[in-house]
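dude i think i finally got it to work??
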Amino acid sequence: MEKGYLSLILHAHLPFVRHPEYSEFLEEDWLFEAITETYIPLINIFDRLIEEDINFRITMSLTPPLISMLTDPLLQSRYIRYVEKWIRLAEKEIERTKHQPDFNRLAQMYYKHFTDARYVFAEKYHQNIIQAFRKFQDMGKLEAITCAATHGCLPLMNTNANAMRAQIHVAVNHYEKHFGRKPRGIWLPECAYEPGIDRILKEAGIRFFVSETHGILFASPRPKYGVYAPIYCPSGVAVFGRDMESSKQVWSSKEGYPGDFFYREFYRDIGFDLDYDYVKPYLHGDGKRSNTGIKYYRITGKSDHKEPYLHGKALDKAAEHAGNFMFNREKQIEYLASVMDRKPIIIAPYDAELFGHWWFEGPNWVDFLFRKIAFDQKTIALITPMEYLEMYPVNQVSTPSLSSWGYKGYNEYWLNGSNDWIYRHLHKAAERMVDLAKAYPHADENSLQNRALNQAARELLLAQSSDWAFIMRTGTMVEYAVKRTKEHLSRFAKLYDDIRSNNVDAAWLADIENKDNIFPDIDYHIYQ
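look at this
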C-alpha cells in the first residue's frame, strides 16, 4: 500500500497566433514546434502505456488559446505543410550525411520523428489531437484542466471584477464545448493569485487550482501540512502548492536533469549550422535562418565545442534521471508520512513545452518515470488533485497569499518598465467593454451590432494575454508582442466608437472576425 502520492501537472499553453492574411507566418511555428516535439510525443507515450495496460495518472492544463489553435482548420492544414517540409529536409539530410555515420543515424531518427508526427496528427487523430487528450480524460488517465480565456494575469486586472470574471467564464464554457463537461480545476495564468480570485472560480464551478509554494506557506492561518496537502480558500475552492524540491530537480538550469551533457543541445540546429543556400528552400519567405528541429549535437559542456548527439546514451540518462527522481520522491514521502496523519501529496508542476521542445528527452523521462513507479516501488502512487480531494474531502481553511511563479514570486515580470505602458489601455478598454455590455443589454442575436459587441469582447481578451507583457520583458520578439497588443487595442477602440455611433463597418468587421476568430460562441453579456 502506497504511503503518499505524486501529482505531475503539465501546463500546456501558447498565445493565440493565427494569421490568415499571410501565406505563412514565422510565429505560427511556435504551435507547430510544440505539436511535433511535445504534444505528439506525450500522446504516443500515453497511448503505449494504455496499450500495455500500465496504470498512470497525469494532469494537464490545456489553455483556451491552445485548444482554439489545435482545432482551427487553417492551422491544422498549415501544420501538415510544416511537417511535410521537414520530412523532405530529413530525406535530404539522410543523403547528405551518408558518409558521416553519427549524423546519418540522427538524420534517419529525425525522418522517423517527422513522419510519425504526420501520421499521428493527420491519420490517427484526423488533424485534431484534442481528441487524444479527451480520450485520455474519458479513460480516467488524464485530468484536463482549464486556464483563463487568453492567459490574462488576473491580479493585474483587479480594477475590474467583470474583466476577471469574463476571463474565467469564457474559459469554462470553451472547455465544456471541447471536453463534454465542466472543468474541475484551473491553472491560474502564471500561477498568479490574489485573495478574492477564488470567489470568481467558485462562481464558475471550479473546484481547485495550483499555487506557487509561497502562496501556501504565507497563507493565513499558516497551513498545518505546508504544501503537502491542499487547503480550502474561504470560498471553498481548494489550492494545491508547488513542491520546490521536485521542481528544482527538473527546472534548475544548473542542477536540473535537462542540463546533463549527454542530452541534446537545443541551440545547435542545422538551420543555422549548414550552408545558407542548402537550407534556404526550407526557410520562411523572408529568408531568415530559423530552427528546423534537426539538431546533431549534445550539450557536451559549457564550451562552444559540441560532440555528436548519441540518442541511445541520452535515453539511458533519461531512465537514470527518472529513477533518481522517483527515489527522491520515495524518501520525501516516507519522511512526510511519518509526521502527517494523512498520506501526503507532492505537486510537481511544469510547463509542458519543457518536455520535448526544450528538453528533447523529456517525454521519455515521463515514460520511464511512470513505468518505474508502476513496477519498481510501492511507496508512491500517481494521482490527480481531484482524486486526492475525493479521498480527503476535509481540509484546513486558509487564505493563500498574493503570489505567482514569476521572477521574485509576485507580479514584477508582467508589470515593469518594459511593459507597464499597456495597463492604462487595458484597464480603460475593460471599463469600456463593461459599459457596452450594460448599454446594449438586448442586441438582436443576428444583428451587425451583436457581432460587433462580441468581436469587441474577443479583441479585449486577446489584448489581455499575459504572453505579450512576458515577451516584452524577456526582450525576444518584442516587436511582435507590441504589435499584437496595439492591434487588439486599436481594433477594440474602433469597435467601441462604431457601436456607440451606430456606424459599424460590416466589411471591416468581417475581416477582423476572420483574423481574430477565437471563441466563436462568445457572448458579450458576460461583461454585464
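The chain has 19 helices and nine strands.
im so relieved honestly
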